[in-house]
Structures are given as C-alpha cells and as structure tokens.
Write a structure and sequence with these properties.
Helix content: 55-70%
Largest sheet: none
Number of strands: 0
Radius of gyration: 27 Å
Shape: rod-shaped
Number of domains: 1
Number of helices: 3
Strand content: under 5%
Structural class: mainly alpha
Length: 110
C-alpha cells in the first residue's frame, strides 16, 4: 500500500499575523467602567470614572484603528456621573442636616 507523498503548505500560511477585526478596548475604558460601577461603594470613584472615561474616549477618537472601548468609556462615565452625583447630593444633605440641627440648637439655647 502506497501512501501519498506529503506536500507542505505554501510559505507564509502558518503563523501569519492575524489582525483583530475590532480594536481592543483600552485599559482606561475598562477602568472607567469598573470605577463607575463601584462608585456606589466609594464616593470619589464616580468622579474618577468620569475622568478615565473622558481620557479613554479621547484616545479612541484619536487612534480608532488601534484603540477601542468608546462604548465602555461612555457607560463608565454615565454610571460614574449618575452615582457620583447622587452620592454628592446625599452627603450634602447629610452634612446640611447636622449643620442645621447644631445651628438651631445653638440659636435656641438660653
């Protein structure tokens, strides 16, 4: 029984670099999304998410062929802005309540 002779594939068919069809998201975009989600547990993370998201979106616009993650950065900015804004209102109301109570207490003391 004779086996067919092995014919190697044409040169360059193995190990050719494969370019991804879409650019990978930047680390700043992922960081913005993580900070935006975690902003509910730590007050300043919402504002960090806004900053990182703005940087990531600027980089994605300047280098669209190599850097992606514009949507992740936008989602992180929205989540960080909403949660950070609500937390800011909460802390202002919290300290305002105590300031008002101490103010009324001092004003009514004999």
């Amino acid at each position: 029984m004779a086996y067919p002779q092995f014919v190697p594939p044409p040169a360059g068919s193995y190990g050719a670099p494969v370019r991804p069809s879409t650019p990978q998201p930047s680390g700043e975009a992922i960081g913005a999304l993580v900070c935006g989600i975690m902003a509910w547990s730590c007050f300043p993370l919402g504002f960090v998410a806004i900053y990182l998201g703005a940087r990531a979106r600027r980089l994605a616009r300047e280098h669209p062929e190599t850097i992606g993650g514009d949507g992740l950065a936008l989602a992180g900015m929205i989540a960080g802005g909403v949660i950070g804004g609500l937390m800011l209102l909460f802390w202002l109301a919290y300290f305002g309540f105590f300031a008002a109570m101490f103010g009324f207490g001092l004003a009514t003391s004999p």
